[in-house]
Amino acid sequence: MPASYAYLGPEGTFTEVALRTLPEAATRELIPYVSVQSALDAVRAGDAEAAFVPIENSVEGGITTTLDELVAGEPLMIYREVLLSITFALLVRPGTALADIKTVSAHPAAQPQVRNWLRAHLPEATWESAASNADAARLVQEGRYDAAFAGEFAAARYGLKALETGIHDAENAQTRFVLVGRPARPAAPTGADKTSVVLWQRDDHPGGLRDLLGEFASRGINLMLLQSRPTGAGIGNYCFCIDAEGHIADRRMAEALMGLRRICLQVRFLGSYPRADITAGEARPTTPGTSDEEFMAAADWVARCQDGRF
């Protein structure tokens, strides 16, 4: 397997900045790809060890391109996550004034994060989507568009000027990125972990989603992300992408996944991995009756009942 990480490029994306915060990135060749799909496909094809892609932002929620790629195709698994605070700069070619800007470009996920600023300062400008914010900067450099919303750090890479900086509609906006590889044994639990799965219902019936969520709730497992995605099988057919607190090695999580496997048409395990927002010492206490020790004590009691030793 090549000692390389694929990432959403080109150079100068927020994805690259977030990737370089991983210590292991210093020992890998970092290869930019034009899209999330092509980066993940590089892993599936064996051309890269792992891919680093955005999966969620605090303004709009899950990034559907990434979720859909993880839902479909050959299975992949999440190994790490990184949170990055996001603010944008308005990048232009030198000599461009605000009044000269008729077209602006960025990744679609950036638009909800700068929409109010754009309405207030460039109400007549036309929005054009790009494969990434850095790609938008490249297109401005080539003269395709007048301005791009991207990281200020991308200005020097593309010979542009930051006309405005610190642009964001929501304070403390963050984007979550994940390191994705081929399926393997998850890393050992840290005490502050997250498990990601995709669930498909057997059929559409009243209370169906409640039944799925009940497998988590009855075991005291908190959900961190719940997003429905169309399956492509027709209107009203959805699967559910879920992030839940805990690790597959935890008894309560393992039992929840077993319960889901029994009642769902399909369950795709996307990994158990360390959370980026807290450490083990900051993790919330488990709900009474849901610790590993209590699960094992309950299992031991059942075994004694079966043996007539109660």
Radius of gyration over all CA atoms, rounded: 22 Å
The helix-strand sequence is EHEHEEHEEEHEHEHEEEHEEHEH
Number of extended strands: 15
The number of helical elements comes to 9
In helices, the fraction of residues equals 25-40%
Question: Given the C-alpha coordinates, what overall shape results?
Answer: elongated
Strand content: 25-35%
Sheet having the most strands? 6 strands, mixed
End-to-end gap: 54 Å
**Unreliable runs, pLDDT <50, ≥5 residues?**
none
**Average pLDDT level:** 93
The helix/strand class is alpha/beta
Explain what this protein looks like in three dimensions.
With 310 residues, the chain is α/β, with parallel strands linked by helices. 27% of the residues lie in helices and 31% in strands. The protein has nine helices and 15 strands. Strands 1, 2, 3, 4, 5 and 11 form a six-stranded mixed sheet that branches. The protein starts with a strand and ends with a helix. 35% of the residues are buried. The model has no long low-confidence stretch (mean pLDDT 93).
Keywords:
310 residues; alpha/beta; 6-stranded mixed β-sheet; 5-stranded mixed β-sheet; 15 strands; 31% strand
Secondary-structure blueprint:
Elements: E1 4-8, H1 14-19, E2 29-33, H2 36-44, E3 50-57, E4 61-62, H3 64-71, E5 77-85, E6 88-92, E7 103-106, H4 111-121, E8 126-129, H5 133-141, E9 147-150, H6 154-157, E10 161-167, E11 174-181, E12 193-201, H7 208-217, E13 223-230, E14 238-245, H8 251-263, E15 264-274, H9 292-306
Parallel strand pairs: 1-2, 1-3, 7-8, 7-9
Antiparallel strand pairs: 3-4, 3-11, 5-11, 6-9, 6-10, 12-14, 12-15, 13-14
